[in-house]
Every structure is written in structure tokens, then in C-alpha cells.
Amino acid sequence: VSIHVTLDPFKPKHLPECRFLGPEYAVFPLKEMYSKQQDSWNELSSLLKNLENLLGIEFPSPNTTKKEEFSSECGVCYTLRHFESNSAPDITCDNIQCGQTYHHACLHEWLKSLSTTRENFAMLSGECPYCSSGIIISAVIR
């Protein structure tokens, strides 16, 4: 799971906007905790401590975690940042054994190249390039 945190530069101690990226089974509990615990935000505490208290988790530390454990590169282009949009991977396979991440544009191109991919109501439905589980994304390139 990845968390995209957006701080207000004029109010950096206030509760930030958080976007959770990952499979729904892993993201849903964090979204629930975030919405239920917002009143516990303490502007006197650090961002890290506040997020750990708010979400009920301990974030990985460079002192206790290996660099290889922070893999979030795209499974199609094998880069962290997309070459055109400079965005991080924002789609994750929901298969609990897979969890591979993708840039929307890369996965879109991959799915469009397969004859088995279906397009319905502005959504593309196909198979994860890594585990072949079903994966659905917006057909609109962002």
C-alpha cells in the first residue's frame, strides 16, 4: 500500500489530504481509520507521528527496512516515474498474492494491445500482466 499525502503549504501542521493506493482489501481499512480518527490529529505532533496514530500503523524506517522492500515501480515500464506524466504508479492488482503496481497509461496501453481485453462503459477489463487475475481500469487516459 502507498499513501499519497498532500500538505497545504499555508497550513502545514493541519490534517493533510491522503490518497491510498493499493488493492482494495488493504486500502479499505486505512480509509476507514483515516475518516474515523480525523479528530485525533494533533497540530503539535509531527506529520509522521500523527499519521501513525491516525492510521494505527507504524511506517517503515530506513533504519529497519531494506531498500528492496520499497518496490513500487510499474510492472510494464519498470520505472517509478512515468516518462510523460512524471507520475508514480497508481493502479494495483487486487490479487493478494500479486499486488503489482502500474502507471495507468502503461496498463492502458498493455490492455489495449490484448485481443482478450473488453471495453464497457468507459472501462477496460482484462488480465493483470503478472498474475492473469482480472483487472479493471478507466478507458480514459489521464
Describe this structure in words.
It is a single chain. By secondary structure, the chain is α+β, with helices and mostly antiparallel strands. The chain is built from 3 helices and 7 strands; from the N terminus they run ββααββαβββ. It has a 3-stranded antiparallel sheet with strand order 5-6-7, covered by helices on one side. β3 (91-92) and β4 form a beta hairpin. The two termini are 21 Å apart. The relative contact order is 0.13.
Q: Regions with pLDDT < 50 over 5+ consecutive residues?
A: none
Order of helices and strands: EEHHEEHEEE
Mean pLDDT comes to 87
Determine the N-to-C terminus distance: 21 Å
> How much of the polypeptide forms β-strand, as a percent range?
15-25%
Main beta sheet strand tally, sense and closure: 3 strands, antiparallel
Reconstruct the topology from this structure.
Elements: E1 2-6, E2 17-21, H1 24-36, H2 47-55, E3 91-92, E4 101-102, H3 104-112, E5 118-120, E6 123-127, E7 134-138
Antiparallel strand pairs: 1-2, 3-4, 5-6, 6-7
